[in-house]
Backbone:
């Protein structure tokens, strides 16, 4: 029985899934495959590395720093979130909170990081072979929200947030041979996403990256379809959807530590659903 976990990300709302995964580490719950989108890729990286609590610190402490995310970053670098600070300065072996790359590499769990080719609009699934010590560019690429951040280049190709290419990669998990999948959402399961904000951001990048812009316009609909498909799998007993009943006021780019801590606690408590599902 091959079991996968999919973390769809969601900016600072990702602290919910961080709580779920910390529960899994505490309970020694393991998966055979992890697929991370945007912030979900960072969550799963720490999970594979066995670094319980690491992402909690990134969300509630480092995320409040202006070096991490700020208007100043946007004015200087055209990126609200400084990916090099998050996945370089803080995460490298000599950083403040290094990712245990060796543990990630040696974990038998397979790992895919979803990013979107800014030119073609296609989803790219990076694997462990694309991650090396102090070379975490695939996480930067997967988390680069259009216009809010510049696309991040990997091997000469510009990439945007993985959610443009495959916002809910449950089908990808089954295509990789999973028999059952745990899907981690950071919005309530029955919330229907709308495209109003995406339309505005798409207009900002359409001139240079028209295909990525079109995918951004379609993201909400593709997310809704992906969740509906996961719900059908859940009815068949092949999937479990773990989602918060409320986001505690946390939004994609909001940074209120107390709100994030409450959302983390919800995630940790909801992790119990996974133990029951896998038993």
Residues:
């Amino acid at each position: 029985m091959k079991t996968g976990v999919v973390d769809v990300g969601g900016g600072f709302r990702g602290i919910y899934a961080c709580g779920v995964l910390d529960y899994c580490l505490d309970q020694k719950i393991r998966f055979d495959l992890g697929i991370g989108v945007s912030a979900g890729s960072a969550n799963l990286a720490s999970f594979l590395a066995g670094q319980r609590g690491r992402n909690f610190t990134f969300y509630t402490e480092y995320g409040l720093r202006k070096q991490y995310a700020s208007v100043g970053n946007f004015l200087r670098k055209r990126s609200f979130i400084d990916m090099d600070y998050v996945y370089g300065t803080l995460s490298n072996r000599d950083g403040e909170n290094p990712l245990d790359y060796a543990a990630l590499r040696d974990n038998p769990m397979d790992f895919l990081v979803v990013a979107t080719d800014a030119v073609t609009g296609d989803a790219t699934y990076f694997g462990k072979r694309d991650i090396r010590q102090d070379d975490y560019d695939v996480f930067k690429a997967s988390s680069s929200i259009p216009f809010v951040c510049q696309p991040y280049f990997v091997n000469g190709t510009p990439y945007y947030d993985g959610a443009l290419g495959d916002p809910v990669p449950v089908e990808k998990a089954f295509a990789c041979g999973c028999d059952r999948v745990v899907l981690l959402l950071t919005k309530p399961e029955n919330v229907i996403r709308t495209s109003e904000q995406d339309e505005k951001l798409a207009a900002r990048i359409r001139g240079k990256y028209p295909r990525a812009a079109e995918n951004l316009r379609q993201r909400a609909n593709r997310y809704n379809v992906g969740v509906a498909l996961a719900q059908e799998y859940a009815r068949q007993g092949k999937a479990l959807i773990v989602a918060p009943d409320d986001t505690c006021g946390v939004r994609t780019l909001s940074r209120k530590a107390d709100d994030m801590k409450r959302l983390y606690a919800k995630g940790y408590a909801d992790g119990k659903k996974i133990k029951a599902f896998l038993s």
